[in-house]
Amino acid sequence: DKPMYGKQSNTWEEAGQPKGLGVDAISKGVLGMSKDEKKEVEAEFEEDFELAPLAGKKVIYSLEIHEVREKKAPDPEDESFLEALKAESLNDLKDKIRKDLEMRKERENVDGKRAQATQKILELPDFPLPQQAVEDESKTIFEQRIQRAAQQGAKQEDIEAKRDELWNESQVQGRARVKLTLVLGKIAEEEKVEVSNEDLAQAATREAMMRRVDPQAYVKELSQDRARISRLREDILYDKTLELVASKGKEKVVESDEKKTD
Question: What are the extents of the domains in the chain?
């Protein structure tokens, strides 16, 4: 269910839901519509919209309703409802929800600290960066943004019109990523952060689940590609180092690295 910035068919849209499939005009437009009814709605994207080719543009969407369903709240005492949620009772379900909310809040807290740690590192005084690394990273980011824009329905001419802007933004992000990588590498060395075989196995399993492939087959395939293993090990190392800086608020570690880069 990707954002409906381009053409899509046979998708479900909750009437009136903010940011439904990415466009408010669509979720608001289907309000009150009946089966087989058609309508056109206009969406206006802000100048700073995340998808550059659509920024500042007005777009007309043609809507047609194939089916209408009413959303009803389930009976919390219904055994089939509890069974579907793998809960033995209503109290058990409430307990599961409470724990889930606590874990989510904790995750958001950790993510917030990671973002702060990342920002603090990027605010360190600049130092010479390997130009080839910056170029390679910028190119990767640029190609990903072009591909994402095309997948989300942006026209080729709109993408080309924003090409220079996209490349400049990609270069800024590329420099930031390389700087972050180098600083985290120094911190990892100083703090003796290591990547275990268990770390690699867990990361590979997560990747397999995201790709919806058999974990064992994916791990076997990965084990035969040293370059991919090296990249995965590097990603894990930097992730563990950032987690260390974020979870323990090690400003002194970052500050000590700042002195080295002066």
Answer: 1-69, 77-123, 124-261
